[in-house]
UniProtKB/TrEMBL annotation:
GO terms for cellular component: extracellular region. It comes from Vicia faba (Broad bean). Keywords: Aspartyl protease, Glycoprotein, Hydrolase, Protease, Secreted, Signal. This is Peptidase A1 domain-containing protein. Pfam families: TAXi_C, TAXi_N. It is found in: Secreted. Residues 93-440 form the Peptidase A1 domain. The keyword Secreted applies.
Length: 447
């Protein structure tokens, strides 16, 4: 009997120790992954079953075009201001995370162009329709206002002092009637790892919005998850704890019938290695602008064997030959400067001899009647130092059943955006210490 007991306690002892080891090695490993929820997927709290596939497709493209206009206005503005022209929810992926102690779950729109993580907070002087519960900072023991005299407050644009002079207030204006204003604060954020554990980060600077406007919004989204390259973005603040690294692997959401989702990885889990990895530098904007994007250098695009030189446009803080395309999580289709687009379109027309389909909505210029994407020549994006041959699912968009459209849009303003469709079935890694983006061809449904 006592023998059994001692075996049993030995077993418990070993078990406890193994658990310690697992916890310790997990902490050492410094890596974890979270689920990315595409806004139109079944799992999305924004999923609208009454929308037809066509409406969804159409909205995707409309969002991409509006977002391109937003970047253009933002970059053309002579003021170094956080000033944007789009509804805040013009992004494609949602992520669930928790704020405060005890943790309170919210959904945010992931945005690689936003440099502040913000959410709606109680009390709401004015809030847009958020269908999920709104965070109440008075119920969190880890919530702290940031003082108006702090360096953080002074270093940020568009901050002011509360009427009693103590709390630092932030304002982000997106477009007419679309804004967030509230207390700049420090909170604990907890990410929900895809492997069932939670990873907490204390003292993250966030915006707690007490006045938020968005005339058309009605849904669960509580705000924006800032993955930009500026100092107050969430990803910059996680900094050393994730080694400056994140990566994602995007599945083909628009044609996916499975309930799998894309993943977002951090730290050691975000390292992209192997034989077929290619990397290109992230080019920082010239001058000391707080507003920065993930600019890459595009040399050319190929349509089959035809190579088309890529030229960008000069804007304040950029160089047309080096800073000529923004890799962006919130744009779906690729947006290209006019003359690059037209050359690609004409190269495509020369090769493809399928019946044309006229898109009456004028969304896409080049559509074909076909049931297979394999009928098209491959498209390769030649970044500086990195040739990325797009997955066949990334270059053509299924507008209707049997209709495939060339998933590139031309922009009068000449701005280039490398959208997330073009990144489908690539593991895309950002290393903010080395300032590189790496690509590795991967089957993201198995990733
Ligand atoms: C934070 O500042 C606001 C004023 O902007 C104030 O109403 C609130 O009580 C402060 N919260 C805490 C926890 O100090
Ligand atoms: C934001 O918009 C409001 C209302 O239009 C305006 O009063 C305020 O000055 C703007 N703030 C910033 C920082 O642009
Ligand atoms: C927000 O909710 C109110 C009350 O339920 C409703 O009347 C209004 O139409 C909603 N706004 C939007 C944009 O859905
Ligand atoms: C995906 O999830 C939705 C909602 O839970 C369900 O209706 C659907 O059948 C699932 N599809 C598959 C292929 O499992
Ligand atoms: C832009 O970049 C190119 C290539 O690096 C360089 O030769 C050129 O001098 C740069 N132009 C400006 C205005 O900085
Ligand atoms: C092309 O596809 C559309 C939509 O499915 C269909 O209405 C049309 O008849 C097709 N045209 C040809 C030439 O097959």
């Amino acid at each position: 009997m006592s023998r059994t007991m001692s075996h049993f306690s030995l077993f418990i002892f070993i078990f406890i120790c193994l658990s310690c080891l697992v916890v310790i090695s997990h902490a050492k490993n410094n890596g974890f992954s979270v689920e990315l929820i595409h806004r139109d997927s079944f799992k999305s709290p924004l999923y609208n079953p009454t929308q037809t596939k066509f409406q969804r497709n159409f909205n995707v493209v409309r969002r991409s075009i509006n977002r391109a206009n937003y970047f253009y206005k933002e970059l053309s503005s002579t003021k170094n201001k956080l000033e944007s022209y789009m509804p805040f929810d013009y992004g494609e992926y949602l992520m669930s995370y928790s704020v405060g102690t005890p943790p309170f779950q919210v959904y945010g729109i992931l945005d690689t162009a936003s440099n502040l993580n913000w959410l709606q907070c109680k009390p709401c002087n004015s809030c847009y329709n958020q269908t999920s519960p709104i965070f109440d900072p008075s119920k969190s023991s880890s919530y702290k206002n940031i003082s108006c005299s702090s360096r953080t407050c002074k270093s940020m644009e568009d901050t002011s002092c509360s009427s009693d002079g103590d709390a630092c207030q932030y304002t982000l204006n997106y477009s007419i009637g679309s804004y967030t204003h509230g207390d700049l604060s420090e909170e604990t954020l907890t990410l929900d790892s895809a492997f069932g554990s939670f990873v907490s980060f204390p003292k993250i600077v966030i915006g707690c919005g007490h006045n938020n406007g968005e005339p058309t919004y009605n849904g669960p989204n509580s705000g924006v998850i800032g993955f930009g390259s500026g100092d107050t973005s969430l990803i910059k603040q996680l900094g050393s704890s994730i080694g400056g690294k994140f990566s994602y692997c995007l599945i083909d959401e628009h044609n996916s019938k499975s309930n799998r989702s894309s993943k977002l990885n951090f730290g050691d889990d975000a390292i992209v290695t192997g034989d077929n990895v290619v990397s290109t530098p992230i080019v920082k904007m010239i001058g000391n602008r707080q507003k920065d994007y993930y600019y890459l250098t595009m040399k050319a695009f190929s349509v089959g064997n035809k190579r088309i030189k890529y030229r960008g446009f000069k804007r304040e803080g950029t160089n047309a030959s080096t800073h000529n395309i923004i890799i962006d999580s919130g744009t779906n289709v690729c947006i290209l400067p006019h003359r690059v687009y037209y050359k690609m379109e004409s190269a495509m027309k020369k090769v493809v001899k399928l019946p044309r389909f006229q898109d009456d909505t004028d969304t896409f210029r080049l559509c074909y009647n076909t049931t297979s994407k394999q009928n098209f020549p491959p498209i390769t994006a030649h970044f500086k130092g990195a040739d990325v041959k797009l997955d066949s699912k990334g270059a053509f968009y299924s507008l209707y059943k049997g209709v495939e459209c060339f998933a590139f849009i031309s922009q009068k303003n000449g701005l280039g955006l490398f959208g997330n469709m073009a990144q489908v079935n690539y593991l895309v890694g950002y290393d903010l210490n080395k300032n590189i983006v790496s690509f590795k061809s991967s089957d993201c449904t198995n990733y």
